[in-house]
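Why does this matter for the project? Reviewers at the last site visit asked to see concrete outputs rather than summary tables. In response, this paragraph embeds two records directly. Each consists of the residue sequence and, immediately after it, the corresponding structure tokens. Nothing has been edited or filtered.
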Amino acid sequence: MATSTTTSMNDYLEMDGNIAFNMAIFNRFSSIGDSCYAGICGGFVEGVYQWATHNIYGIDESANSKYTGWTINFENGASRRVYIENWVMDAKPKNWKHAKNLFGKYLRTDEKYNNSPAAQGSSY
């Protein structure tokens, strides 16, 4: 097993079905009714995993010299963008919980894009 000095932020984000990444996305883009997933699935982590499985169609990653970003495409046709500074992605977290907390704290939403007509999906 890798030690904490060699485990990257990205390694932690990909652990356990990308749950740390999905938790950050859930915390930013879920609706009030989505909290029922935790009750149905028996816990918050299981609920987030099921929410992501049912709602996220795909994720596109991009990066430049300063930021790493993701466009999250949802099942209803909407998309949202989030980004984080590369120094956070280059960090060597102490453990999974530290990685999850750093990622959640520094992840930002692209409000200009997220509020644009291009990001809006179909309404039900």
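We now turn to the second protein, recorded in exactly the same manner.
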Amino acid sequence: MKTTNAATEYATITARMTARGSLIEAAESAGQWDEVDRLTKLQNRDDGKATKLYRAIDDAARATRTAWTM
């Protein structure tokens, strides 16, 4: 996985999560609990993806720093 592709995907996922957070709040305010559940499941799925991507980006950055110091 190229780091730039991972970084782009990470940015896309986190932006989507931010927007979805607003939708969850609106659904809660409206009392649409089925929609809250659906959106929360999507949010949790994306959170897992974002975490994996963040780790991959961090590992690549760490490897690059290590290579520069050798």
